[in-house]
Design brief:
Blueprint: E1 8-13, E2 16-21, H1 31-43, E3 52-57, H2 77-92, E4 98-102, E5 105-107, H3 109-116, E6 119-123, E7 127-129, H4 132-135, H5 143-151, H6 153-160, E8 166-167, H7 168-174, E9 179-181, H8 186-198, H9 202-234, H10 238-249
Parallel strand pairs: 2-3, 3-4, 4-6, 5-7, 6-9
Antiparallel strand pairs: 1-2, 7-8
Length: about 260
């Protein structure tokens, strides 16, 4: 039995499981939510009924990552980040294929969550943004490994180090998005794609996924430690404090290199 937070709903359509995050409009995540998603995915490895999972969310946006405005005073952010990433790594070791239905924006850790899936369905209006350089700290959630694997090293460099925003059409061109759907129909298209995958031979699909993704999970495990270490060093800097404050205040950050 999966114990899920109230804002994660799990339903089934035949051989397809649908995991819906219900934290609109931004669908920020935290460690309990990521752990619940990972628990559900790993439970499907012992469930002959479930062959494919769809990860989706309510509201305007897919996921805006972690909510910095909700960080409690005195919280050890570095330690909590390590614990969060331990759960995030489990997503990359899911025993079943995962299709992410990405509407609105996938920002920061939300992009990392989308990249933990095997496939992504979006629309031309979807926006993907690794905004870490504007927040003043290192990318996380395994993006240092997952994003270059998906889009190639140069496109990943532009998205990470240059904070380049990518819309759905561009994302489809560079391989970040597997299928484009009309705006507002991202979830329906993702579920339809999942049913297509579910009609394939499940043992063969799982076998090939294991071959293709085992090394990715190992790479993510290695970079998560580096990401967490770099974040812990950069969070106390003046630039990071300015970047986060500017984001919360919806203004342009002014960085000093300190």
């Amino acid at each position: 039995m999966i114990t899920s937070p109230a804002d994660l709903a799990i339903t089934h359509e035949g051989h397809v499981a649908i995991l819906e995050i219900a934290r609109p409009p931004a669908n920020y995540f935290d460690r309990p939510l990521i752990a619940a998603i990972a628990d559900a995915l790993h439970s499907f490895g012992h469930d002959d009924r479930t062959r494919v999972a769809v990860l989706c969310s309510q509201g305007r946006h897919f996921c805006a990552g972690a909510n910095f405005g909700a960080t409690a005073d005195g919280e050890d952010r570095a330690s909590e980040s390590v614990r969060l990433y331990e759960q995030g790594l489990r997503l990359f070791r899911s025993p079943v294929p995962v299709v992410a239905a990405v509407q609105g924006a996938a920002v920061g850790g939300g992009l990392g969550l989308a990249c933990a899936a095997d496939f992504r369905v979006a629309s031309a209006q979807t926006r993907f943004w690794a905004n870490f350089a504007r927040l003043g700290f290192h990318a996380g959630f395994g993006l240092s490994a997952s994003l270059p694997r998906i889009v190639g090293p140069q496109a990943a460099l532009r998205m990470l180090a240059a904070a380049e925003r990518v819309d759905g059409e561009r994302a489809h061109t560079i391989g970040l998005v597997d299928r484009l759907a009309p705006a507002g129909e991202e979830r329906a298209a993702a579920i339809a794609y999942a049913h297509e995958l579910a009609r394939l031979a499940p043992l063969a699909v799982r076998s090939m996924r294991h071959t293709l993704r085992e090394h990715l999970a190992d790479e993510v495990a290695a970079v998560l430690s580096r990401e967490a270490s770099e974040q812990a060093q950069l969070w106390p800097t003046a630039d990071s404090l300015e970047g986060i404050a500017a984001s919360l205040e919806r203004r342009e950050p002014v960085f000093t290199g300190r």
